[in-house]
């Protein structure tokens, strides 16, 4: 929705739904200043009792041909900056989603593999949950980045090193047929 009226004072007068108790920031191709204003107003009205939740902190999303677009993390950061508070992230690399799934299903981490194309989300989540990790090199990560982390003495960088890597997820097809 558009901002009501021509001036900032008008924007602060748009009606708020009294039932709203959380602001969720996820991927939104129609993110706008109006939505940012509404998110801030809900967070200010509810104070600490109004949750600020983000789906993930991905800074960019890779596209075919090596290009990228801004990721959800950019939108989360905009709301965090306006609200002057940090969002609770429910997606990777936070364990929250894994713990939710693990509480519903009998998951054996020793028999579970996390496959992903990002070190800072997919691989970090897998490693922090005790899963085997497999990096696909079709996303934003390069093998040189992996080698740099692998050769580092920093524990935080070591936590970004996958157990295995493949050039493409298609490389797994022969193994899945067995």
UniProtKB/TrEMBL annotation:
It comes from the Eukaryota. Gene3D superfamilies: HAD superfamily/HAD-like. GO terms for cellular component: cytosol; plasma membrane. It is found in: Cell membrane; Cytoplasm, Cytosol. SUPFAM superfamilies: HAD-like. Keywords: Cell membrane, Cytoplasm, Membrane. Its main location: membrane. It is a peripheral membrane protein. GO terms for molecular function: sn-glycerol 3-phosphatase activity. The keyword Calcium does not apply. InterPro entries: HAD-like_sf (IPR036412), HAD_sf (IPR023214). This is PGP phosphatase. It comes from Cochlearius cochlearius.
């Amino acid at each position: 929705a558009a901002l009501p009226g021509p001036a900032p004072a008008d924007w602060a007068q748009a009606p708020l739904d009294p039932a709203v108790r959380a602001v969720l920031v996820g991927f939104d191709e129609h993110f706008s200043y109006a939505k940012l204003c509404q998110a801030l107003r809900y967070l200010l009205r509810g104070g600490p009792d109004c949750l600020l939740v983000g789906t993930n902190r991905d800074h960019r999303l890779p596209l075919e041909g090596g290009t990228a677009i801004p990721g959800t993390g950019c939108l989360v950061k905009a709301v965090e900056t306006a609200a002057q508070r940090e969002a609770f992230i429910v997606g990777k690399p936070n364990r929250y989603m894994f713990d939710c799934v693990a509480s519903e299903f009998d998951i054996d981490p020793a028999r579970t593999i996390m496959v992903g194309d990002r070190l800072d989300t997919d691989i970090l989540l897998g490693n922090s949950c005790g899963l085997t990790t497999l990096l696909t090199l079709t996303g934003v990560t390069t093998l040189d980045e992996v080698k740099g982390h692998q050769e580092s003495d920093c524990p935080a960088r070591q936590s970004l090193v996958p157990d295995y890597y493949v050039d493409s997820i298609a490389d797994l097809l022969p193994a899945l047929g067995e």
